[in-house]
Design goal:
The chain is built from seven helices and no strands. It is mainly α. The protein is globular and about 40 Å long.
Length: about 150
């Protein structure tokens, strides 16, 4: 399995290839929801925890929205569209300072979660390839979050 993290250039927006629908078929909706929940549980204990909801209700809603998105992007029901509208994820995440370094932490947490899944390598690789490129679109700041706020 190749969990390489692509080099990032600020404002780079490469084309994204959706993961194979076999990812959803193999993992199921319940499995995707668990994968997303496990990922968030790592994130809220990481150095980028400041980007995620602090209270449990808001965190659970974020987990649901993210799982709905991945289920939809993998060819499942249009839960995200029905509940949130068009994805426009870069706009929805604009309030947080997502740096290239935060992208790497986000991806490293996904590596931990994906490494535990027992799926065919080509199915898992398809999902990883999607995450790796998709994550470029979320970066909205060059600045390191902690450095920026330490100066104020």
């Amino acid at each position: 399995m190749d969990f390489s993290i692509s080099q990032f250039a600020y404002r780079q927006r490469p084309p994204v290839t959706k993961p194979t629908p076999d990812f959803l078929k193999a993992l199921t909706e319940e499995g995707i929801r668990k994968m997303v929940s496990d990922h968030y549980d790592l994130l809220i204990n990481s150095e980028i925890k400041h980007l995620f909801p602090k209270n449990e209700e808001a965190l659970n809603k974020a987990k649901q929205n993210s799982a709905d998105f991945f289920i939809q992007i993998c060819g499942g029901p249009m839960y995200y569209l029905e509940n949130r509208g068009q994805p426009m994820l870069a706009q929805r995440h604009a309030a947080g300072s997502i740096t290239p370094e935060a992208r790497i932490v986000w991806l490293q947490c996904y590596i931990q979660v994906l490494s535990k899944l027992e799926l065919l390598e080509e199915i898992l690789q398809s999902f990883w390839n999607y995450l790796n490129v998709f994550s470029f679109w979320m970066v909205n700041s060059k600045e390191d979050y902690n450095m920026r706020f330490d100066k104020e």
